[in-house]
Amino acid sequence: MELNKSHASNMFQKNVRKFLRNKLAMIGMVVMLIILLMCVFAPVFTSYRADQPDFSARTQPPNLPHILGTDKLGRDVFSRILYGGRYSILIGVTGAFFGSLIGVILGAIAGYFGKLIDSAIVRLSEIFQTVPNMILILILGAVFGRSIGNLLFIFAITGWMTTFRIVRNEFIALKGETYVQVCEAFGMSKIDIMFKQILPNVMSPVIVATTVNVAHFILSEAGLSFIGVGVPSATPTWGNILNAAKSLDVISNYWWLWVVPGVVITVFVLAVNFFGDGLRDVLDPKQQ
Amino acid sequence: MLKFILKKLIQMIPMLLFISFLVFGALQLTGIDPVSYIATPDMAANQENLDLLRERLGLNQPFLIRYFNWVGDILRGNFGYSITNGTPIGVLIAQRLPATIELALISMVVSAVLGISIGIVSAIYQNSPIDYLGRFFAVLGQAIPQFFFGICLIQIFSIKLGWLPSSGRYSTYATPLRHFILPCLTLTLSLTSVLMRYSRNNMLGVLNSDYIKTARMKGISETKVYVKHAFRNAMRPVLVILCFRLPMLISGSVVIESVYNWPGIGSVITDAVIAGDYPVVMVTTLMVAASILIASFLVDVLTALLDPRVRLGEE
Amino acid sequence: MKKFIVLFVIFAISMASILPAFAADNEKAFQLISAGNDSLGDKIEYPWMNMYMLGGLMWRTLFFVETDMVTIGPDLASSYTISDDGLTYTIDFVGGKWSDGEDITLDDVVFSIKANLKAAASNSIYTSAFTKIEGAEAWRDGTAEDLPGLIVDGNQLTIKLTSPHNILPNVLCQFTILPEHILKDADLLEIANNDFWSRPITSGMYKLDEFVAGSYYTLVPNEYYDGPRPKIEKVTVNFVADVVTAAQAGLVDMTNTNNQSVIAELNKLPGMTMFPVDILFYRYFLANIEGVDGNTNPVMADIRVRKAILHAIDRETLAESLFPGLAYISNSGVAGDNPASIGTEYAYDPDLARQLLVDAGWDFDYVLRILLYYKDQTSLDFMDAIVYYLGEIGMKAEYTVTSNGTQDLFQTRNHDIGYKGLSAFDISEWYGEYNSANANFRMVFGGDTAFDEYINEYASATNQEDKDAALTKLQEVEAEKVYKLPLYTIGNNVFINTDRVQLPEGITFGNPWYKTNVHFEDWELK
User: Fold this and answer.
1) Interface contacts A/C by beta carbons within 8 Å
2) Of A100, B129, C338, C424, whose Cβ has the fewest other Cβ atoms within 10 Å?
3) CA-CA distances (angstroms) from residue A117 to A108, A123, A163?
């Protein structure tokens, strides 16, 4: 056991070094963390409230009190971006987390039990892949109404298939390994075997897939809000801030209202992707 | 082989039935009433007659009866009518689908050519500035929200420069080609970056494989190695991706159609879901689902033809 | 490898063949746009739902109203007389020709009125007028074969009403007569969806020429039209997503809007001239109090809560910021400068608002649910501001946008107040919403009969004095009940590209949502 631990920590140190050497991944991580922290500690960085109109200061270009200008109601764009980031990032992270959670559970069950259960769940995943995602989201949005919670639910039940595939395939491969058979012989409960013994071995690709999904869901939220079926428009997510600026009058006259949120989304997603790629190089080299 | 194809085809039927039932059921849960959608609150219409219309359309009948009526109609080749517009759904699809297919297919060809060539060049000159540029472009293409990219293009080419129209497909003021350029560019960007990543990675994998090394050792010229051996082997998975992408593009062009007011099927679907126009939603969903199933079926057949092991494994 | 190349070439060629390449059509035409987002662009506007200022281009009505919306002149009919009890109208019919050469007869008129009663989609101004014709109910539900209240005698049409409806002649200035010989077998209930609207036979000065579904259609003069031939030889109507881009592309010779951002952009374009028009367009909150079905919403039951909302909102500042020069504060259905106004007012007073809430025992943890069906950005900005103002008096609020306005406002009713618009033809429409028989509004106002008497008084008034007396009563009841929270009325601006269009001297414009006499036949392209 001792030996095993030091080996593991060696691996860890090696991985960290490998990650630190990957410049893009480091840049990605730093940018991601900066944006994240600024959003979380928004009140430290801005004194304006995101929802407070100031009718005497409408559509001001970036200037000293309002470093990114103000919108049509005179609200400070910088503070809206920061407070909006809280929602957007939260949606991306939780959506991806729950999607992966479903994927892991179903993948483990399908891969471990095999046979009928496996083919039933695989069929289910095929169905979810066949119904066009957009239509599914539109319909679910109409069924449950527009709210952040519902959007998360929709993301979770439409975003589990990648993780499911990874976990299931790994489980099928690992099921035959000696140590699993040994555990079974010792009479360990199936749940323990699945989640305590096999699962840790497949966590790396799952973590990578989840990271990629965070970026994907942030983009999805923006896209859905853009066609008016995402988060209720009163909530200042990045997608909604951008959506509020899609009229041509805004596009041609008030660049800061649409360029700023667009660039922020792009930069954040870019950073998450770089970070995810770096993670993949370290954790899951063969998936490249 | 025939047996394999038949089996795959038969598997599709219960799948489509199940999907149609799922979508139908979900639409019932939304509780949207297409008839009251017709009447905007600004100008309330003839209530009694709206009730009659609801009855005529069978909207008062129980859910299951309506589902089976609908399936029966479809089997008889009757796609039904749009509730909110009255256009036969067949006509509606004939009007709108070509616009989406045109956009999807041409974008696909453009991005296939661009993505594959950039990907291959990146792989051949791995870790050169060209590679970094290509990779950066690929990551950027996947990180930038499609509609944001679309708005940027509109701002530059339509508003600032005034070269290209910002919306529509046909008009009396610009040629169809000029209408086509911006939506096509937007849809191309994201697909190109996906394909570029795939072909670069595949090409790298092939270039590092043993048999290319052997070929090189045998003294075959570099160009020949790239073109004859590496390219062909790297392309197979890329073609599969392409096959899978086309149906996705059809439903995925929803956002782009909304940015450019492109009169395609995507906007029909969005509007129909919002209005609860269930005959339209059902038929369009099934159409996209069927095309996805057919695409994956083609991929299966192709792989089976190319690689007999898959076929044996299935049987 | 070769196979791949061949495949690619074939693919590329087939792609290229999909791109149809017809050249742009540069013929001189008067350019209009249709910016309806939810239409498929394969039908022209259905005139029984929305009529437009230029509705006369394609359609004739019995009478023609001048831009003041009061002075009535002849169109298909030359004159009318009303009996003293206001129940019998006698109309002298003249007639004309359809664009296919057939005669427009009184049979077409009778057919159109009868068809309208059976149509699901119809503007309420027609429905509320025609259901007052004798025998209308029986005809509509199919128990009668005919409509006895319409009597044709040679060139005279007699309309018999069951109760007075003094705006009937104005309604007839808007009501499009449709060709019986084309539509006699049509499904009347779904007439709005008939494919007649894809290839219409028209009665106005123009007829349909070419229709490219989803893109545009063109109109050319109707040679069978017996009025003066229009000087403009061709009219193009493009289906566009956005007015501003279309205008920038030179596609818009005429449009109208109340959207501030569109107004700002259009004013920047050279040649675009703005003509402000004063119209009756109300925006207000509708309290969801109780339905006749017994479904009550106790949250809004206390009148003090409803008044608090009105006092909490600084409507003046909002109107000036979001709708500069367009919106006017309204405190009832009657504008403040109307001589009949009784001067009801709800001033911005957050302290009073807070006090009213406290008095009403308001639960400050409750989140007020606001419903709206407008999706334009100005409306959403407006809602953001409303939520902020309510927050300032301690009232939590959130808003939801629905695509299914009528159903959600009057049936689903998962809201406390609804943001609604009313494009009214006459003040009576605003008060008609309080009518206890109104199928929609009795679902939120509980079928209160307090207004009914005065609504009828107004409808049967034949002179201004009687009308004003009824309006005074209506305003009093309104201020006492506060079922609707009036916010503002919003004007409209007509834009015409005067670089391209030569307008006749002294032209005036009326409410752009109604067909008025703008002498289009005298308009010229420069």
Assistant:
1) 58
2) B129
3) 11, 10, 17
Residue type, C451: F
Listed in sequence order, the residues at least 6 apart from C189 whose beta carbon sits closer than 8 Å to its beta carbon are B49, B52, B53, B56, C118, C119, C120
If you count them, how many residues does chain A have?
A: 288
Contacts of C372 in chain A (CB under 8 A): none
d(CA A27, CA C456): 74
Q: Phi and psi at residue C276, in whole multiples of 5°?
A: -70, 140
- Best of A139, A231, A233 to disrupt the C interface (most C CBs within 10 Å) is A233
CB atoms within 10 A of CB B133: 12
State the chains in contact with C (3 or more Cβ–Cβ pairs under 8 Å): A, B
Helix, coil or strand: residue B37: helix
Residues of B within 8 A of C497 (CB-CB) are: none
How far CA C422 is from CA of C35, C264, C282, C487, in Å, comes to 20, 24, 5, 12
* Neighboring chain A residues of C387 at a CB cutoff of 8 Å: 51, 234
For residues B200 and B123, the answer to whether their CB atoms sit within 8 Å is yes
- Digitized pLDDT (tens) for each residue of chain B, 315 residues in all: 677 778 777 877 887 888 788 777 777 776 666 666 666 555 555 667 777 777 777 667 777 887 887 788 777 777 777 777 667 788 778 878 888 888 888 888 888 888 888 888 888 887 788 888 888 888 888 888 888 888 888 888 877 787 877 777 766 666 777 778 888 888 888 788 878 887 887 777 777 777 777 777 777 777 777 776 667 666 666 666 776 666 666 656 777 887 887 778 877 887 777 777 777 888 887 887 777 777 777 777 776 666 555 444 443
Query: Which architecture, in CATH terms, is B90-314?
Result: Orthogonal Bundle (1.10)
CA distances from B223 to B118, B124, B220, B227, C373 (A): 16, 11, 8, 6, 63
Select from B181, B187, B136, B189 the least CA-distant residue to B161: B181
The arrangement of secondary structure in A89-288, i.e. its CATH architecture, is Orthogonal Bundle (1.10)
Per the document, the length of chain B is: 315
* Domain residue ranges of chain A, discontinuous segments joined by +: 89-288
Which residue in C has a C-alpha nearest to residue B257's C-alpha? C241
Q: What is the DSSP letter of C393?
A: T
Nearest by Cα to C474 from C461, C462, C463, C487: C461
CB B175 within 8 A of CB C24: yes
Domain range list for chain B: 33-78, 90-314
Structural domains present in chain C? 1-276+493-526 (3.40.190.10), 280-490 (3.10.105.10)
The single-letter code of the amino acid at C458 is Y
Residue at token pair 């494009």: C423
Task: Give the type of residue at A33.
Answer: L
| Alpha helix segments (H runs only) across B253-277 | 254-260, 265-275
DSSP code, position C296: B
The C-alpha of C466 sits at a distance from chain A's nearest C-alpha, in angstroms, of 43
Model-level pTM?
A: 0.77
Q: Write out the DSSP string of chain A.
A: -HHHHHHHHHHHHHHHHHHHH-HHHHHHHHHHHHHHHHHHTHHHH--S-TT---TTSTTPPS-SSSTT-B-TT--BHHHHHHHHHHHHHHHHHHHHHHHHHHHHHHHHHHHHH-HHHHHHHHHHHHHHHHS-HHHHHHHHHHHH-S-HHHHHHHHHHHS-HHHHHHHHHHHHHHHTSHHHHHHHHTT--HHHIIIIIIHHHHHHHHHHHHHHHHHHHHHHHHHHHHTT-SS-TTS--HHHHHHTT-SHHHHHH-HHHHHHHHHHHHHHHHHHHHHHHHHHHHH-GGG-
